[in-house]
Amino acid sequence: MNTEIHYRKASENDIDFLLDLRTKTMNEHYTNSSLPTDRASTLQRVLYQFEKANIILFNNEPVGLLKIDRSKDPIEVLQLQIDPGQQGKGLGKTILQSILEEASSAGKKVSLSVLKSNKAQHLYSSLGFKAVGEDEHSYFMSFSDR
Questions:
Q1: CA 145 – CA 100 distance, rounded (Å)
Q2: Which residues partner with 141 through β-bridges?
Q3: What share of the chain in percent tops pLDDT 90?
Q4: What's the whole-model pTM score?
Q5: Cα-based angle 96, 101, 107 (whole degrees, multiple of 5)
């Protein structure tokens, strides 16, 4: 797939975009998991480790969020959200494959968590992520080519 995916560091100017994105991509899953969907809870999730937030640009338009911590092993994908209007185009898969290649080159694993009600877990499994734990609401997944 020939995609023009770029990233830029998220800033305070992106908060409204990120609130809207999070509402569109996650509220259904939070509701299904009996987790709060009010604005304050959503803002708290947007601001969580905000210094690691990157706006995903597709053809120079903001289409999502990648929050990632590359500082340790495993590399942790904290949040990956693609606007529903851009889903199904392979963007998430392309982004994750790039992260997996980066991790492989660095000799690191990759971890993430996914709500049990979120169908994205099928994408993660198809890329080789394995569930290594769970809690009431989420699966904790890991990828390693070692």
A1: 9
A2: 112, 131
A3: 88
A4: 0.92
A5: 120
88-136 pLDDT, tens digit each: 999 999 999 999 999 999 999 999 999 999 989 999 999 999 999 999 9
Strands (E) in the chain, as ranges, are: 5-9, 53-58, 61-69, 75-82, 110-115, 130-134, 138-143
- Residue 113 per-residue DSSP state: E
Please choose, from the candidates 8, 32, 43, the residue with its C-alpha nearest in 3D space to the C-alpha of residue 119. Answer: 32
Measuring CA to CA, how many Å separate 122 from each of 24, 77, 78?
Answer: 19, 16, 17
Q: Which residue has the tokens 């994750």?
A: 96
SS (H, E, C) 76-97: EEEEEEECHHHCCCCHHHHHHH
